[in-house]
UniProtKB/TrEMBL annotation:
PANTHER family: 2-METHOXY-6-POLYPRENYL-1,4-BENZOQUINOL METHYLASE, MITOCHONDRIAL, METHYLTRANSFERASE
Domain (Methyltransferase type): residue spans on this chain: 26-124
GO biological-process terms attached to the record: menaquinone biosynthetic process; methylation
Transmembrane segments: none
Annotated protein name in UniProt: UbiE/COQ5 methyltransferase
Length: 254
């Protein structure tokens, strides 16, 4: 389901990174295999893809998935995207899909990414835009905040929409030293058969929503998810379920 929702913006990100056969690619906050696997298919057997993530378990899943597909050019390491244990100028491209906005110090992260790029290297990344363009996440988050007694996020606080404000990503890239940044909006509608299917995927895949109410008793968490499922039904129609989403795709040169 996640690949269906984010597959197109992932393809556009890899295009923006200019990934070609034989290149060396660094994937930050790689998750369980994408977009590292798609990058590996582009660089081919003579290329090299290093998929990194903070979670040892997630990194293991990525390695298993890649090797299950015979992609021996994929390697994995547990690593903090803000502090890369890697030499300078060793990668042709750095990619990051839906990871930078969760980092406490995104400017530090971008400077590190630039450091490990070769002289003509490129960075390409994807973040979510603003809450009003992303009902898939904003609607559940508002319900959870009410159930959990949480205040609205402070501007700049790490979270799904922390880098979505107009001009924010462009400014960060320039301050980090990148040249010729380009940022554009990409629609990412979240489709499912019914609202209940979407909510089930959200419960399993969107860890941030669960983390917001981790301190609540199990019964209270169930009540919040039940309300979310009920409210999300307004996005159902005769053709199925569709709730709006929008990403920002950014790319730049070293």
């Amino acid at each position: 389901m996640l690949d269906r929702w984010y597959g197109e913006v992932t393809r556009l990100m890899l295009d923006s990174a200019g990934i070609r056969p034989g290149q060396r690619i660094l994937d930050i906050a790689a998750g369980a295999g994408e977009p590292a696997i798609s990058a590996a298919e582009r660089v081919g057997p003579d290329g090299y893809v290093l998929a990194t993530d903070l979670s040892e378990g997630i990194v293991a899943l990525a390695q298993e998935e890649a090797h299950g597909r015979g992609l021996r050019q994929v390697h994995t390491r547990v690593m903090d995207g803000e502090r890369l244990d890697l030499p300078d100028a060793t990668f042709d491209a750095v990619i990051c899909r839906l990871g930078l906005m969760y980092m406490p110090h995104p400017l530090d992260a971008l400077r590190e990414w630039r450091r490990v790029l070769s002289a003509d290297g490129r960075v390409a990344l994807v973040v979510f835009s603003t809450p009003d363009r992303n009902d898939w996440g904003a609607v559940p988050a508002a319900i959870i905040r009410r159930h959990a007694g949480l205040a609205a996020p402070v501007p700049g606080q790490p979270g799904p929409f922390s880098l979505g404000a107009p001009g924010r990503l462009d400014a960060l890239l320039r301050e980090a030293g990148f040249e010729f940044p380009v940022v554009r909006a990409v629609p990412v509608p979240h489709r499912a058969t019914r609202a209940e299917q979407f909510v089930q995927v959200a419960r399993e895949a969107f860890g941030g929503l669960n983390a917001m109410m981790a301190h609540l008793p199990e019964a209270a968490q169930r009540a919040a998810w039940d309300e979310i499922a009920l409210d999300m039904r307004r996005f159902e129609s005769a053709s199925g379920f569709e709730v709006g989403g929008e990403c920002l795709l950014a790319s730049a040169s070293k």
